[in-house]
Amino acid sequence: MRWLVGWSSTAAGAAVPGSAGATGYDGETVHPVGSQLLWGDPDPLWAVGDWRPDEVRVVKADAQNRIAVLGMCGASDEELRVGLFAARGGALRHLTAWPGSYTAVVQVGRRITVCGDLAGARPVFYTPWAGGTAYATAALPLADLIEANLDFGHLAALLAAPDVPAAVHDSTPYDGVRRIPPGHALILRAGSREIAGYEPVASLAVAAPPADPGAAVDAVRDALVDAVRARLAAPRHVPGTDIDPGPVPGMGPAERRAARGMPVPGIGSDLSGGPASGTLALLAAGLPGMPGTVLGHGTGAGERLLAVTFNDLAVRGREAELERAGTLAANPRLHHVVVAGGEEVLPYADLEGPLTDEPGPSLVTAARHRARLAAGSADHFTGYGARQVLDAHPARLADLLMDRKRRHLVRPVAALAKADGSVMVPARVYSAARRLARTSYRAGVDALSDRLMQRRFEEPGGAVGASLAALTWARPGPAARWLTGEALAEVSVRLQGAAGRTGVGPGQRPGDFRARAALARHAADLRVLEQAAEIRSQRLHAPFLDNQVVRACRALPEALRVQPGARAAILRSVLEGAGVGGLPAGWGAPTHASSAVAARTGLRVAADSLTALFDTPLLAEAGLVEARVVREAVRDAADGVALPLDGIADLVALELWLRRLLARRGTCWTGTPARARAVPAGIAPQGRALGAGA
Questions:
Q1: What's the pLDDT tens digit per position in 222-247?
Q2: 509: nearest Cα among 455, 473, 460
Q3: What is the CB neighbour count within 10 angstroms for residue 469?
Q4: In contact, 545 and 119? CB cutoff 8 Å
Q5: Strands 132-136 and 3-8, sheet pairing
Q6: Which of 594, 597, 602, 610 fits a disulfide with 346 by CB distance 3.0 to 4.6 angstroms?
Q7: Is the link from the previous residue into 42 a cis peptide, with omega within 30 of 0?
Q8: Single pTM value for the model
Q9: How far lies 590's CA from each of 270, 315, 393, 573, 595, in Å?
Q10: Which run of H or E residues covers position 651?
Q11: Backbone φ, ψ for residue 48 (5° rounding)
C-alpha cells in the first residue's frame, strides 16, 4: 500500500518545532512508520510506502507556498508551478485537470488543500485529532491515530445499501474517520476544515446547450490518448534488479523473476478480448515511441507491448473473446502472453491475502486477478471503469423523459423486449421510467427505508427485471436479505437521518445520480483489488478513471449512451480517430455470463470451507447477520438455488476483512503508545452502535 498523510494544527506551536511530526494527546511526537517527509512542521506531510521517485514531486514557490503531487501526473514542473500560483487565489479545478491519476496537495501559508478525484479511486480521508485535523489517502492510518473502533452502521450499510450515498454518506469502516465525496477537496486552515466541490454546478435558470455527439466522442478520444501518453512518457522501471540473487542453476532471468513474484520490466496491458482493455492495448501499442518492455530485460521482446490474456480452464463461455484477443495480439507491436488458470484460481478458492484499507467484494477474487497480474508488466494497463463511465445506467431512461426526449427510448426498450420476448416490455419500462421521473429523491430514499424495515427484497429476474429494479433512486443491496432486523433498522435510521440532506445537486437527474454512485462504488472496489492482488513493484493503471477521461465521458449525450452497443461503438470511434483499424468481427460483443458461472462454480467448489468460515463469524458477533442463516444461504447457492451471488460475495468479503483486521498487529505510527491502533477492543456489541445511531 501507498498513501500520503498529513496534519493541520490549530496553531503554529501545536507541534514540536523541528520534529517533523505532530504532538499527540500525551505530548509525544508521532510520525508514520516507513515514511518520507515532504515538508515539516507546523503542518507536516509524509509519503508512506514504496513510492517511486518519479511518483512524488514537490514544487516550491517559496517557504510558504508549495505543491506536492503524488501518483502518475502528466504535468511538467512548470505547469505545477503555474497551478500553485492559481491555487493561491482559490482556484481548484485546474489542479485536477492534468492527465494521469494522482493526488495534489497545496500549501499556501497555513492553508492546506487536498484534492480528491472524480471517480473515487483516489479518496481523501480526515479525522479530528489533538485539536486539529489529520488527513490521509488511506483510512487505516487515521484509525490507528485515533484508536478508532468499528463503525457498525457503516458496515451494515455496505451490506444493505452499498450503492446508496444516503446510507453510506461520508463514513468509513472506522468510527470517527470520514471520507470526502468524489469531486471535492478538503481545505484546512490552521486545523479547521472545509469540504468544497471543484466541479461547476448546473444552472436551474439556463438550460445546458445540447451536446454534439461527434465532438463529445472526439473529446473522449483526446482524453484517453492523453492518459495513455502520460503513462508512456513516464520513466520505465525494471523491478527487482536490486534484489536479484544472481544466477541459479536451471533458471534464467525470467524464471528467477517469476519465482520472486516480480512483474516484467516495462509497460503492458490486459487484453481480455473486450473493448475496454483492447482499446488501451491498441492505443498504447499504436502511439509513437517505444511503448513496451525494456530492451534486454524479461521477455526479450524489445519494445513490444506485453499483452496478457487470462484463459479460464475451469469455466467455459469466453471462447469468442479469447479468439478476438488472439486476433488483436497479431499486431506486430504486441507480445501476447496467455495465462491459464484452473479451479485453483476460481472465486473463493484462495481466501488468503493481505489486509486492505477497506472491505470490498474483490477480496473473494483477488487470487484470480493476482494470477493474471503476476505475468504482467511493471506498469500495467487495465480496462476497469469503462463500463461505469461509458454505459448508460437504466435510470437514465427517466432522465430522457425529464428532458422530453422520448424518441430516444425506442431502441433500448426494443432491445430489452427482444431479449425478454414479451410485447409488454415497452409499457412496463416506460411506466417505470415515468414513475421515477416524477419521484423526488427524498421520496425514493424513504421508500428504500420502508423496504428495509418490511424486508421486501424480491425483484423480477432477467435483463428486463434488472432494468426495472434499477429504475429507482435507491434500492437494497444483494446481501440485505440476510441481515438481522437490528442491522436493517440501523441502516433505516441512517437513511432517515439523511432525509434532511438532499444529496442531489441542483438540476441533477436520477440516472446521472445513480451512475455517479455506481462509479464511486466500482472505484472503491478497484482500490481494494489493487491492494489485495498487489504484485511487488507493479502499478495498475486504469485510464478510464482519470479525471479528464471521466469528465469527457460525462459530457456524452444521454441519447447516445442509451443505445444498444454504445460503449463498443464509442471505443471503435476512439480507435479509428487515433488511426487504429482492422478490429476483428464481433469486437465489443457483451459477455457477462462467464463471470456469473465462475462465481457459482467457485462457490460450489469452496462450499465446505465457506460454511466453516461462518461457523462462528465475526459478522454474527457484531449483530449484522445470523450464522445459521448465512450457512444455509451458502449451501443453497452452492446447490444451484437462485440467490444473488453478489450478496454472498459481499458477506464473505466483509467477514474476511474483519478477521484480517482483528488479527493485525502493530500500528501505522511510531512514537505512539502500544495501544494506539485501530479497533483496540475488538468486536463490540452491535446494540451499542445502533443505540448511538438512533
A1: 999 999 999 998 888 777 544 444 45
A2: 473
A3: 16
A4: yes
A5: antiparallel
A6: 602
A7: yes
A8: 0.92
A9: 17, 17, 15, 17, 12
A10: helix 645-663
A11: -120, 135
Phi, psi of 69, rounded to the nearest 5 degrees: -125, 120
Cβ atoms within 10 Å, residue 418: 12
SS3 content of the chain, % helix, strand, coil (to 5): 45, 15, 40
Span 289-342, pLDDT tens digits: 556 554 444 444 446 889 999 998 988 878 888 899 999 988 888 889 999 988
Output the furthest CA–CA distance in the chain (Å, rounded).
75
Q: CA–CA separation, 684 vs 622, rounded Å?
A: 7
C-alpha cell recorded at residue 655: 467477514
Please give the span between the terminal C-alpha atoms of the chain, in angstroms, as a whole number.
Answer: 35
Rg (alpha carbons) of the chain, rounded to whole number? 25
Report the helix count and the strand count for the chain, using DSSP H and E: 26, 20
Pairing state between β 22-23 and 3-8: unpaired
Dihedral sign from CA coordinates of 592, 598, 601, 607 = negative
Q: Which residue carries 432525509 as its cell?
A: 499
pLDDT digits over 108-127, tens only?
Answer: 988 999 999 999 999 999 99
Which candidate, 132, 133, 127, places its Cα nearest to that of 147?
127
Residues 6+ apart with CB under 8 A from 487: 152, 156, 159, 160, 623, 624, 625, 686
**What torsion do the CA atoms of 90, 96, 102, 105 make, to the nearest 10 degrees?**
0
C-alpha span between 67 and 367 (Å, rounded): 38
Q: Per-residue b/e over 670-686, b at no fewer than 16 CB within 10 Å?
A: bbbeeebbbbeeebbeb
HEC per residue, 224-261: HHHHHHHHHHCCCCCCCCCCCCCCECCECHHHHHHHHC
